[in-house]
Write a structure and sequence with these properties.
Length: about 210
């Protein structure tokens, strides 16, 4: 399996000629969608869902499938790809990968801002992309995550919450997710603290890096 981390929240997985892409949003590279057979969308925010990018890169691709919460599906009208609604607690196969959906709601940004749907994705029972949530109870009971894509910076997130989340999930390794808004100095400060506190191997990789 080949796993590539693109900018911000975007991850691409490839195996046996098939490609699965998670959250190709407004901050991620359009090339992440080249040849994609399936796309998983965690929620509707622009940094996770770029409809224009999907329309452009998947034009004419009636064989491609996009998976998203029912609250997001109506935002994907007009795409050539098949759009399939999914809710937390489902298991399905996308681009040859076994996918289990988790979660339910986006983390609280502010009490005045309504919470929206957020679906996390557990791939092959080992790779976990939580979208915009750091609630370990989102995961199925007994889940054993090997690789966690860990949100590290957002208007809704504190560093302590990232640390508590990775400690609760107990993965073998974690990679920074949701990091586009950090400056170089911020990346260093966050990275130093999380690496020291996470309790597992932690790394922030440059966009386009294929993970070992």
């Amino acid at each position: 399996m080949r796993v590539t981390k693109f900018s911000h929240a975007c991850v691409r997985m490839e195996r046996e000629g098939a490609a699965l892409v998670i959250d190709p949003g407004g901050f991620s590279e359009a090339g992440s969608l080249d040849g994609a057979d399936a796309v998983l969308i965690t929620h509707e925010h622009f940094d996770h869902l770029d409809v224009d990018k999907l329309t452009s890169k998947l034009a004419g691709r009636t064989d491609a499938t996009i998976y998203a919460h029912p609250e997001v599906v109506d935002k994907l009208d007009g795409l050539d790809a098949t759009v399939h609604p999914v809710r937390p607690g489902e298991t399905f196969t996308a681009a040859g990968f076994r996918v289990t959906t988790t979660g339910g709601r986006h983390a609280v940004i502010h009490s005045d801002i309504p919470r929206i749907a957020n679906v996390g994705y557990l791939i092959e029972e080992t790779f976990y992309h939580p979208g915009d949530s750091v609630d370990p109870s989102d995961l199925p009971e007994g889940a054993q995550v090997e690789t966690l894509f860990l949100p590290v910076n957002a208007p809704w997130l504190k560093l302590s919450e990232s640390v508590d989340f990775v400690r609760a999930v107990t993965p073998r390794r974690a990679y920074a997710l949701h990091d586009f808004l950090l400056s170089d100095a911020g990346l260093k400060v966050y990275g130093t603290n999380i690496a020291k506190l996470a309790g597992c191997d932690y790394e922030r990789v440059e966009p386009g890096t294929t993970l070992p």
